Write a sequence for this structure.
C-alpha cells in the first residue's frame, strides 16, 4: 500500500520482481498469487482504484499470477480481519492453477465485452459460471459517463452473465466504472 501514488509503474515493477525471483531462485516459472488491496481510506485519496486496476492487469497479463479479489471482504481496516476469506481465495487459485483442480471456483467475474445501445451499456462477464447476483440487493456502485468523462451514479440490472447500466444524466454513454472509490465494499 505504500506505493499507491506510483500505481502507473506497478505492473512493470511486479513483472520485473517476478522475473528476478525466478532467475535468482532458479526453480523455474513458479506462480505468484496475491491479494487485491483492500477497501480502505488511504492517505492518497482517490488513487487506490487505479492500483486495483494495475493489479487486475498483472493477473491478466503476467504469466503464472493470480489475484484474490477483496473488494467485498474489506472491513474498514487496511488489512481485512477475516483472513479466512483471503486464505480461501488464494488457496483456490493455487489449487486450480498450480495443482490442476480447475473445477474449483477460483476466478472472479471479469469483464469480457462492453456494448452500447442508445443510452444503455451492456457489460458481459466471463467466469460467472452460475451467472451474476447481487443477492437481491440493488446495484448502487455503478457510474456511467459520456465523452466528457464526467461520471454519474447509474442504475444497473443483472441478467445472467451480463449487467445493463444506464443513467438519465447520460444520453450517449462511453464509459462505465464500478466501485471506483477507496473505501467501498462491493455489493
Amino acid at each position: 500500500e505504500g506505493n499507491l501514488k506510483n500505481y502507473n509503474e506497478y505492473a512493470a515493477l511486479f513483472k520485473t520482481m517476478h522475473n528476478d525471483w525466478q532467475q535468482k531462485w532458479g526453480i523455474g516459472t513458479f506462480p505468484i498469487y496475491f491479494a487485491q488491496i483492500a477497501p480502505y481510506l488511504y492517505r492518497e485519496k482517490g488513487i487506490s482504484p487505479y492500483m486495483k486496476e494495475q493489479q487486475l492487469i498483472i493477473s491478466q497479463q503476467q504469466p503464472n499470477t493470480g489475484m484474490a479479489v477483496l473488494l467485498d471482504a474489506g472491513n474498514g481496516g487496511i488489512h481485512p480481519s477475516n483472513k479466512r476469506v483471503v486464505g480461501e481465495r488464494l488457496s483456490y487459485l493455487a489449487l486450480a492453477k498450480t495443482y490442476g483442480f480447475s473445477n474449483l471456483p477460483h476466478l472472479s467475474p471479469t469483464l469480457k465485452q462492453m456494448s452500447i445501445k442508445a443510452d444503455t451499456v451492456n457489460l458481459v462477464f466471463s467466469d460467472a459460471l452460475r451467472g451474476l447476483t447481487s443477492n437481491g440487493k440493488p446495484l448502487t456502485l455503478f457510474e456511467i459517463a459520456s465523452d466528457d468523462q464526467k461520471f454519474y451514479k447509474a442504475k444497473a440490472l443483472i441478467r445472467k452473465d451480463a449487467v445493463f447500466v444506464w443513467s438519465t444524466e447520460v444520453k450517449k454513454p462511453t464509459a462505465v466504472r464500478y466501485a471506483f472509490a477507496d473505501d467501498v465494499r462491493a455489493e
About this structure: The helical segments are 7-25, 48-61, 83-97. The chain has a mean pLDDT of 91.
